[in-house]
Design goal:
There is one protein chain. A six-stranded antiparallel β-barrel has the order 1-8-11-10-9-12. Helices cover 42% and strands 28% of the residues. The two termini are 73 Å apart. It is α+β, with helices and mostly antiparallel strands and 329 residues long. It is built from six helices and twelve strands. The chain folds into three domains: 118 residues, Beta Barrel (Elongation Factor Tu (Ef-tu), domain 3); 54 residues, RNA polymerase II/Efflux pump adaptor protein, barrel-sandwich hybrid domain (OB fold (Dihydrolipoamide Acetyltransferase, E2P), Beta Barrel); 103 residues.
Length: 329
């Protein structure tokens, strides 16, 4: 074999090796451009627990798991017989307190009249003493009568203030019990889907007992973990795409709403570059609330999938990651 032929064969082998290496690199990079980060996770949503404010027996639960409910919709009712009895007693106390105030106010008017009369008697007595018609002792008695009337009036006014405070306390107790009765009707604090029905009619719950768990379908997201080499280029609000395994034909637009400040899966102290490259940061990819509302009936949590994050703003997405959504019925 000539030298020229040997050189040609060597060149072909080098090119084949280079091509094979390039192909291996492409396959292991999943064909993604370097400006796109990737991670997998599950579709999640924030949960809201609907619980009792006070203890009591569950009368009825009006929704089932999977039901979609609107904000302020009635979900369940707790027995209020005991609270109703307490309310009647509180109202009776409020009436009694009002009657007491009315009585003391009448006494106050009487004491004011008595003080006025005593003051007039004192003036007359002082005039008569000056003319010598009565003794100083009688004038002193009139002075004592006026001071006694003044003291009695002050005491009655103090009693009136205390009685008015009792009225306020009784009215506050009525409002408190009425609030507890209102709270015994459990309403949805948000619009969402019933994830769990945790109590049934007849069960006795303590204060804070959970009855319903709701999924907030206006806050749906996927959590992924990105390495140090990528997370440094990811910013809040960055464009993202989500593809779920159950419907890989759809590409859902999303944005980065959170990037953890602390790394996970690695020791707290990292000394070498190779170890730093293993740091993983939790990243939250959220779907817009308007889009969720438009496709509310199709939103499902717990589905696994993949999320892609654009690390170079303004760069066009590849065709296979172009937004593609299901039609709205």
């Amino acid at each position: 074999m000539s030298l020229k032929s040997r050189i040609l064969i060597l060149i072909l082998l080098v090119l084949a090796a280079a091509g094979g290496g390039a192909y291996w690199w492409y396959v292991n990079q999943d064909g993604l451009p370097e400006e796109i980060a990737y991670g997998n996770g599950r579709i999640e949503a924030e949960t809201v627990q609907v619980a009792t404010k006070t203890g009591g027996r569950v009368l009825e639960v009006l929704v089932d798991e999977g039901d979609f409910v609107e904000k302020d919709q009635i979900l369940a009712r707790i027995d209020t017989d005991e609270l109703e009895a307490l309310l009647e007693a509180a109202k009776a106390n409020a009436v009694a307190a009002n009657d007491l105030v009315a009585s003391i106010r009448a006494q106050t008017v009487q004491r004011e009249s008595e003080l006025k009369y005593a003051a007039q008697e004192l003036v007359r007595a002082q005039t008569l003493v000056a003319k010598g018609h009565i003794s100083q002792q009688e004038a002193d008695q009139r002075q004592t009568a006026k001071e006694t009337a003044q003291a009695t009036l002050e005491a009655t006014r103090a009693q009136l203030k205390n009685a008015e405070s009792l009225v306020e306390a009784a009215q506050a107790e009525v409002r408190r019990i009425e609030t507890l009765i209102d709270d015994a009707t459990l309403k949805a604090p948000i619009s969402g889907r019933v994830q769990y029905r945790l109590a049934e009619p007849g069960e006795v719950l303590s204060a804070g007992g959970r009855v319903i768990t709701l999924l907030d379908l206006s806050d749906v997201y996927m959590t992924i973990f990105l390495p140090t080499t990528e997370v440094g280029r990811v910013y809040i609000g960055a464009e993202a795409r989500i593809i779920i395994d159950a419907a890989p034909e759809y590409v859902i637009p999303a944005t980065v709403s959170f990037v953890a400040a602390d790394a996970q899966f690695t020791p707290r102290e990292v000394e070498t570059r190779s170890e730093r490259e293993k740091l993983m940061f939790r990243t939250k990819i959220s779907i817009a609330a308007d889009l969720l509302k438009e496709h509310i009936e199709k939103v499902r949590t717990g589905l696994p999938g993949e999320a892609y994050v654009m690390m170079a703003p303004g760069t066009q997405w590849p065709d296979d990651l172009a937004v593609h959504l299901p039609s709205v019925n």
